[in-house]
Design goal:
about 575 residues, alpha+beta, Heat Shock Protein 90, 3 domains, binds adenosine-5'-triphosphate, binds magnesium ion
């Protein structure tokens, strides 16, 4: 048995357990590969301060084999980094920092390449260019899974070649893999549509296996603010991590360690913490052993320290959320809510929710829950995701919807739940579902309730309007008759009487049109909804066909829709 003991490389482990990374079946594997590349592309563009234009091409080679090409206009990758990024698992720039980004583990793109290599034997081809007057590098590489090391097969330099990269910089990755293409739920198409909703600043061009080109245009021409990187919060770390940090710190004294390696600890707080542990700021780090670290840990728990700063979080924001949703979902009522930041395990996070109701959405189905984490759509493991649980635990009956027990509501409703955080607690390496932390679920429910209340107000008001306008039409039907009768009995002036009665009828049923203003159908609920920046109500609903089984019904022709708020009158993006 002793002779059988040997090291296992991380890539060997994940090659055997590829389902842990989201490569469990050909259909899902293809989606995961595209998702990893597109997420990286968006991350790179945003970090480089560039408005993203992502090109995705899925080329079918034979029945079960596909060639995926994903190109971005990001800052590109320096030649020396290319092989490690694409040919080595657990290598990346995002793992060791606390900064909001789509990627965090350093596995994504190399795992996609590894899956391609395992299923087709074909290497990954990367072309990257870092500037206008710089050469493009084309690197063909394989991963040596037994050693988790890249093997470069060829390396070609294309001096000043700008044919691929219009802006003079960017990265293109091509992976050949075994896959299966299918439209509908959990498809590449759905992933890209939802990516367009959560990233209204990105332009996405998608060439499908049937050689159709779909464009997802930009809804806003501004990049989101760059999120700041933060240091760990003392309250969020465990004893083991504290010991490791003490072992690895570059600081020589305890005071320096506490103030430089953590956020929210100034000189006074550091003094308070060290005093509580029976030490001082001048205590040498090398004298801090296990027992001292434990005292320090206890003292941290006893000390009041303010919550981490939240400028590290950049939510999509109600305005952009609504713009994204309006572009892709054919509903009549939209509402959004962004919660203030909160903290779980010392990590700042923030929740935002948007809903779309009615219009062309399917009336008979269950509501659709769109889940996002740091702007990335999550398409799998819905029922184990915290956001799905939060939707099911919210009492939608209070807002006029039907809801089976312990389930999500039914009816023409789309609910979008987005979590932003410096570290999203995924349930697995494949980053499919958010873990169920109480703090997170509570925030999600509060945001859902806020949107639900607005929807409830709208639905109640709509019902009342319909009732009143029915009443008015009954009055109107008889007013002419009544005027004529009064004229023949007492000789009253028909015209005068008709006008007076009409005025009365209008006054008595004024609710029917008190919500309709000169623009068409403004729902002005004494300012409660009409003036709400986070609500959009769409007119011309007769133009919206019922959506097909896909959420956003590509085939359905998009028409101009007038929204009821002057400032938010928008047109659907043309495709
Ligand atoms: N298109 C790209 N442009 C520029 N840099 C990139 C690009 N793709 C990947 N990178 C760099 O390569 C690193 C590794 O990417 P990879 O997808 O493997 O991991 P990650 O994005 O850090 O985390 P995750 O595993 O969660 O996706 C990234 O951290 C990033 O620095
Ligand atoms: Mg990644």
């Amino acid at each position: 048995m002793a002779a059988g003991q040997r090291d296992i490389s991380v890539s060997e482990f994940f090659a055997k357990n590829r389902h842990l990374l989201g490569f469990d079946n050909p259909r899902k594997a293809m989606l995961t590969a595209i998702k990893e590349a597109v997420d990286n592309a968006l991350d790179a563009c945003e970090e480089g301060g560039i408005l993203p234009h992502i090109y995705v091409r899925v080329l079918q080679i034979n029945e079960s084999r596909f060639k995926l090409t994903i190109r971005d206009n990001g800052p590109g990758i320096v030649r020396a980094q290319i092989e490690n990024i694409f040919g080595k698992l657990l290598y990346g720039s995002k793992f060791h920092r606390l900064k909001m980004s789509r990627g965090q583990q350093g596995i994504g793109i190399s795992a996609a390449g590894m899956y391609g290599l395992m299923t087709t034997g074909k290497p990954v081809v990367i072309i990257s260019k870092i500037g206008k007057r710089k050469a493009a590098h084309e690197v063909v590489l394989k991963m040596d899974t037994s050693k988790n090391r890249p093997m470069v097969i060829s390396d070609t330099e294309h001096p000043e070649d700008d044919t691929l990269f219009e802006d003079g910089h960017g990265t293109q990755v091509t992976i050949e893999l075994e896959g299966k293409y299918q439209k509908g739920r959990q498809s590449i198409d759905e992933y890209l549509e939802q990516t367009a909703i959560a990233n209204p600043h990105a332009k996405i061009t998608y060439v499908t296996p049937t050689n159709e080109t779909l464009e997802f245009p930009r809804a806003i021409e501004e990049l989101p603010e760059e999120p700041k990187e933060i240091k760990p919060h003392p309250k969020g770390i465990e004893l083991g991590t504290l010991i490791q940090m003490i072992e690895r710190t570059e600081q020589r004294q305890l005071g320096g360690f506490l103030t430089k390696d953590f956020c929210r600890v100034g000189a006074t707080k550091a003094r308070e913490i060290t005093k509580g542990a029976g030490m001082t700021g001048q205590t040498w780090i090398k004298t801090v052993g296990h027992a001292e670290a434990e005292k320090l840990y206890d003292s941290i728990q006893r000390t009041r320290i303010i919550a981490p700063n939240t400028d590290c979080l950049v939510p999509i924001g109600s305005k952009a959320l609504l713009a994204g949703l309006l572009k892709e979902v054919k509903a009549e009522f939209f509402a959004a809510s962004t919660r203030p930041p909160n903290v779980y395990r010392g990590n700042p996070f923030q929740i935002e929710v948007a809903i779309g109701y009615g219009g062309g959405l399917g009336r008979d189905d269950n509501a659709k829950v769109l889940r996002f984490a740091n702007r990335v759509p999550l398409l799998y493991s819905q029922s184990s995701c915290c956001s799905f649980k939060a939707v099911a635990e919210t009492s939608w009956k209070n807002y006029g919807l039907t809801q089976p027990r312990n389930s999500i509501p039914s009816g023409p409703l789309v609910v979008m739940v987005h979590m932003v955080s410096v570290w999203v607690p995924f349930t697995s390496e494949s980053k499919e579902a958010i873990a169920d932390y109480d703090e997170i679920r509570k925030e999600m429910k509060l945001a859902l309730q806020e949107c639900g209340r607005k929807l409830g107000t709208y639905l109640r008001r709509r019902k009342r309007m319909a009732r009143e306008s029915e009443r008015r039409s009954v009055f109107e039907r008889y007013i002419g008759e009544i005027s004529r009768c009064c004229n023949s009995i007492v000789g009253a002036d028909i015209d005068k009487l008709y006008k007076a009665l009409m005025k009365q009828a209008k006054r008595r049923t004024d609710e029917a049109d008190s919500k309709l203003d000169d623009e068409g159908r403004v729902l002005d609920d004494n300012g409660r909804l009409g003036n709400d920046e986070d609500v959009i109500i769409v007119d011309d609903l007769q133009d919206i066909p019922e959506q097909e089984d896909t959420l956003f019904g590509k085939s359905a022709k998009k028409k101009k829709r007038k929204t009821t708020k002057k400032k938010t009158t928008r047109k659907r993006g043309k495709k």
